[in-house]
Design goal:
Blueprint (H helix, E strand, L loop, with lengths): L4 H28 L5 H14 L7 H8 L6 E7 L2 E7 L4 E3 L4 E2 H8 L2 E6 L5 E5 L5 H23 L11 H42 L2
Antiparallel strand pairs: 1-2, 1-6, 2-3, 2-4, 5-6
Helix pairs in contact: 1-2, 1-3, 4-5, 5-6
Length: 210
């Protein structure tokens, strides 16, 4: 006896629910494993088996597997040739402006390692090994791009538009991004200035030893 249409739909929905629950359980377990290894690889293989190896992962699943870390960059194309940049601060993804060009993105990710792409075309990158020059350079480049993009947004909003709904939200967001980026840039430049003075002092010591 054939199943009724209602029963078929019910069975299909039940199967989809179980599949979604299984995938979510694997994602939750991946988040608890900090370092790569046999267990994490086995969970990953099981996820792919259930999800389908030919399909891209959800952003949540990919972030769990790559173990997002502070300083990681997430890029997404929002319209033809224009991208948003987010930086992970250790807890949340903070947007570093919007409307970045393809050339901006190429410059930013040049020294970074590609981690993967999720459904929705979100691409993830990580600065090269800790303590390297690339690791220092990538965040400051992201801050410079964010600062310039935020200023560009502010320039494009007329004074008469600042308190109009829509432009007002864009204005407030751009101000927050600009001040945060400015603070990050000031801190890094201050650190480099201190280092420069140390090297200058080394020159004096070298001269004394002549």
């Amino acid at each position: 006896m054939q199943k009724s249409l209602v029963q078929q739909l019910t069975d299909e929905l039940t199967a989809q629910t179980k599949r979604a629950q299984a995938l979510q359980q694997i994602v939750d377990e991946l988040f608890t494993i900090a370092t790569p290894g046999p267990l994490k690889n086995a969970l990953w293989a099981r996820y792919q088996e259930i999800e389908g190896a030919s399909q891209q992962l959800s952003a949540e699943a990919l972030e769990a597997f790559i173990q997002v870390a502070e300083g990681d960059i997430r890029i997404q194309e929002v319209r033809a040739g224009r991208f948003t940049i987010h930086r992970y601060d250790g807890q949340t993804w903070e947007q570093l402006g919007a409307g970045h060009s393809e050339q901006d993105i190429k410059t930013l990710i040049a020294p970074m390692a590609f981690l993967g792409e999720s459904k929705g075309k979100r691409q993830y990158y990580r600065p090269s090994g800790p303590g390297t020059e690339d690791d220092e350079e990538a965040p400051i480049l992201a801050s410079v791009h964010a600062f310039y993009s935020a200023l560009d947004t502010l320039r494009g909003i007329e004074t008469s538009e600042i308190y109009i709904p829509g432009p007002h939200e864009q204005w407030e967001q751009a101000l927050r991004v600009a001040y945060r980026a400015s603070s990050d840039i000031d801190a890094r430049v201050g650190s480099w200035q201190d280092e420069l003075e140390v090297h200058h002092e080394r020159e004096g010591r070298a001269e004394d030893n002549l």
